[in-house]
DNA sequence: CCTACCGATCGGTAGG
DNA sequence: CCTACCGATCGGTAGG
């Protein structure tokens, strides 16, 4: 790729990165292209030399991040570890995404409603696929004779929600170290799934 | 109160209820007063005979709901049940708020960022008070010799986040009944807190 | 990459 | 409760 094109592409990445931070901070509809341009040091009109539109940026942020999650899920399939280990891997992956890729992950989980069709359906379709697969991994971990109906669904929702809730920890003074937080989440959520009082049939 | 005033106040409540539903569905900044007016069957200008401004509606929705949560927390103090029962009561209260008062609860937890000062600080102050009190209840439930640092904080975050995550269940086909969902959440989150492998010192 | 500008839409007001 | 309208701001384009 010629130098000029590589530079332009690098600038596009910078713009999208700043956009992700602002979408996270103020929400997509409340972020104006003029705010974004100022943050970067351009006039608003100049942004359009690098990006197509505001909505295109939202799409890029969300689908890139979603595809990373899907890729991790597929890679889990190829491992031959037991199901509890797979659930732990899922928790750790999402916690790390939330910590290391805070803006992108937050925008994906909170701003996807502002996608326009057909991208909105495209996203919800991918998400439906992801959560179903995740639920089936949890279900396999619980064994055949689960006591409560819909518990694998509840657990899947709770894990994803718990990670999303780390937003408040991220915003706060952060008295707890990232590694400790990750371990705490695993302990709390896995122990709930491996507690014999709730799930007497769990295969350890 | 004279009849005319009572009627006007009832219409205000109707407007705020519709506003809550729209703020939840599309987000506060993406909801226009013209959309809201159309939903109710008025011209946009006529809304201002009943409400002061768009932001005033957001404030009313959020602070009313927040005060209900605070009131429940204070009432917990007066009970002399043990700490695990208090945690269970907290979980059940929030799950029910999420189910029965979906729009208001969702707007409070997701749209508070769009409050203007001084209301924004007012809200974050109340929330800080709430979560600290909630954390101290959980900490008391864990006993003095908790194994992991910051576990009561993690548990508090996880409980609140898990309830917020019920949004996806609410949007979905709802194969699981509300009562079952509530029981599942309690089982999953409480068992995590009462698991001797994680918390050997828990006072039951 | 900027100046200049477009049509559309926003929250809200005046006046009846 | 409506008509008519305000200034501000939005995403985006033309033309250089």
Describe this structure in words.
The structure is a homodimer of 204-residue chains. The first copy, chain A, is mainly α and 204 residues long. Chain A has two domains: 1-51, Homeodomain-like (Arc Repressor Mutant, subunit A), CATH 1.10.10.60; 54-194, Tetracycline Repressor, domain 2. Chain A is 72% helix and 0% strand. The first copy, chain A, has nine helices and no strands. The first copy, chain A, has helices spanning 3-26, 33-40, 54-78, 83-100, 102-111, 119-142, 151-164, 166-171, 178-194. The longest helix of chain A is centred in the N-terminal third of the chain and has 25 residues, at 54-78. Residues 198-204 of chain A have low confidence and may be disordered. The A-B interface holds A 26-27, 29-30, 110, 113-114, 131, 148-151, 153-155, 157-158, 160-166, 168-169, 175-176, 180-181, 183-185, 187-189, 191-195, 197-198 and B 26-27, 29-30, 110, 113-114, 131, 148-151, 153-155, 157-158, 160-166, 168-169, 175-176, 180-181, 183-185, 187-189, 191-195, 197-198. Chain A binds a DNA duplex (16 and 16 nucleotides) through residues 32-34, 42-46, 48-49, 53-55.
